[in-house]
Amino acid sequence: MRVFRSLESVPADAKGCVVSVGNFDGVHEGHRAVFRRNRSIADARGWKSAILTFDPHPTRVVAPERAPRLLTTIDQRLAAIEHEGIEEAFVLAFDESFAHLSPADFVKRVLADGIGARAVLVGENFRFGAKQSGDVQTLRLLGEQFGFQIEVVPSFFVRGRMASSTAVRESVLRGNVTAACRLLGRPYWIEGRIVSGFGIGSKQTVPTLNLETDAEVLPAHGVYVTRTHDLDGANRVWPSITNVGIRPTFDGDKLTIETFLLSGLDGGTPHRIRLEFLRRVRDERRFESPEALKNQILKDVSRAQAYFRRLSRWVGRKRELLPDRFQV
Question: Are 229 and 273 a contacting pair, CB within 8 Å?
Fold first, then answer.
């Protein structure tokens, strides 16, 4: 996927595309529905498939006090969008001058002159232009004026719930990572580097990997079945169990993310990992002693092992139907 970070850098052969416009935070199932429709039109007409997005998130410029915590960085979003088969990405810097563009100026400068869009796909609640003064009907009228088609892609529902970045974010923050997984079409994950802990696990409970992350959205305090990926290039993956919290048994007051691997390292300790949250096990709570906590951890480990056994059997039966992003 080619990525263009300014309109001035867009070459002639990137213009004349089908472009989906949005923030695409999380790249959830609703976004994938938009991308599928994008590719369908592009393939039928012989056009390029493309997305238009913004960095930073527009709300961080126009109303920073209301800006959402993001599920993904711009680079993570682009990698996921490329995986969906999109060929071009236009990533425009959103600043005060951009925020003051009228709907007509946005369409002329960006969609018509800058990108040369032939078709534009948006969601039902799409708003654009200064103070979000433009809506879908505005875009339709401007599309007729500037010679490109408009298609509004209906909302995508998963088990009766609309797939949206807000819904994913709320599910993760509540600790309902299973619901988040359904909305995303993949496990919710965070990345970061392994750091030294307090030494308590190796001495009094069980040894863990301690993750330091810049992720803005973390699951609610508790214990989760997870899957740990080595990001150092070794392509190692471990079933695991993770505690997100403050270690109340040890009077902790600092958030930690501690992961116990259910299988051996089989090599050195990774420097960077990706942690996928698969299922919530229980709340974090204070135990009367480190020994009591250790006993509970061993019970948690047994539950996690049982989960992975069930998952392995299910994958064995359904592997041919399972998307790559779910493969164990």
Answer: yes
Examine the fold and report which residue of 155, 176, 197 is the final residue of a domain before the chain moves on: 155
The string of DSSP codes covering 12-77 is GGG-SEEEEES--TT--HHHHHHHHHHHHHHHHHTPEEEEEEEES-THHHH-GGGPPPPSS-HHHH
CB atoms near residue 217 (< 10 Å): 21
Q: Is the pLDDT of residue 200 over 50?
A: no
Claim to verify: residue 100 and residue 166 sit in the same structural domain: no
Q: Domain check: are 91 and 179 in the same one? A: no
- What value does the CA radius of gyration of the chain take, rounded to a whole number of Å? 23
Contact 88, 17 (CB under 8 A): yes
E-assigned strand segments in the chain? 2-4, 17-21, 48-55, 88-93, 119-123, 149-153, 157-158, 161-162, 188-195, 209-213, 222-230, 237-245, 256-261, 272-282
- Segment 32-36 shows an average pLDDT of 96
Range of the domain at 88: 2-155
SS3 of 195, please?
strand
Residue located via tokens 């740990």: 228
pLDDT tens column, 78-113 = 999 999 999 999 999 999 999 999 999 999 999 999
Q: Is residue 307 a contact partner of residue 228, using CB atoms and an 8 Å limit? A: no
Do 302 and 188 belong together in one domain?
A: yes
Judge whether residue 325 has pLDDT over 50.
Answer: yes
Q: 155, 183, 202: which is the final residue of a domain?
A: 155
CATH number of the domain enclosing 268: 2.40.30.30
Question: 95 and 225 share a domain?
Answer: no
CATH code assigned at 82: 3.40.50.620
CA angle 270, 276, 280 (to 5 degrees): 125
The two structure tokens encoding residue 270:
């990774």
Burial of residue 251 (CB within 10 Å: 0-12, 13-18, 19+) is: exposed
